Amino acid sequence: MPEDELSRSSHSNPGKSLANGIKTNPASSSPKSNLSVPMGPPVYVDLAYIPNHCSGKNTDPEFFKRVRASYYVVSGNDAANGEPSRAVLDALLEGKSQWGENVQVTLIPTHDTEVTREWYQQTHEKQQELNIMVLASSSTVVMQDESFPACKIEF
């Protein structure tokens, strides 16, 4: 586009600009804008760590539709910050229901929290329907001055 056309274009559309050939409106640009991410095939992994201590800030049903794991690790243990998030655990059920295949999934909580216990009890029937198992461990590892629960996973 010639320079004079470019300048006219930007003057006739104040507040809009071109970024990589796409018209954008800086006033509506925000970190949580509605940018659509192109769909691609799901990613299959053996083990996935649910991001951000299972906080609802970064994980939604789309995560579980796209990242299909045999094992998901839930590490949240901060109720004051909503970790683990009940919404994320529910998103696992919603995302897994979209897979179209009945693959066994194991959820591994690293802490025994009220949120995970309530979710487990209230959604147990749905978990069974979707072939989701929640791994509880009574094993404890003791190292120097600390002890913590542990789970053994074999692939």
Structure explained in plain terms:
With 155 residues, this protein is α/β, with parallel strands linked by helices. The protein is 30% helix and 25% strand. The protein has helices spanning 3-12, 51-54, 61-66, 86-97, 114-122, 124-129; strands at residues 17-19, 22-24, 43-49, 67-74, 105-109, 132-134, 139-143, 146-150. The termini are far apart. This is MAP1A protein. InterPro entries: MAP1, RibonucZ/Hydroxyglut_hydro. Residues 1-37 are annotated as: Disordered.
Brief characterization of the structure:
By secondary structure, the chain is an alpha/beta fold.
Strand content: 25-35%
Number of helices: 6
Mean pLDDT: 75
> Which runs of at least 5 residues are low in confidence (pLDDT < 50)?
5-35
- Rg to the nearest angstrom? 22 Å
What structural class is derived from the secondary structure elements?
A: alpha/beta
One letter per element, helices H and strands E, the order comes to HEEEHHEHEHHEEE
Gross morphology is globular
| Largest sheet geometry | 4 strands, parallel
What strand order characterises the main sheet?
3-4-5-6
Helix content: 25-40%
User: How far is the N terminus from the C terminus?
Assistant: 57 Å
The beta-strand count equals 8
Key structural traits:
single chain; 155 residues; alpha/beta; four-stranded parallel sheet; two-stranded antiparallel ribbon; 6 helices
Give me the secondary-structure topology.
Elements: H1 3-12, E1 17-19, E2 22-24, E3 43-49, H2 51-54, H3 61-66, E4 67-74, H4 86-97, E5 105-109, H5 114-122, H6 124-129, E6 132-134, E7 139-143, E8 146-150
Parallel strand pairs: 3-4, 4-5, 5-6
Antiparallel strand pairs: 1-2, 7-8
GO molecular function: actin binding; microtubule binding
Biased composition (Polar residues): 22-36
Organism: Grantiella picta
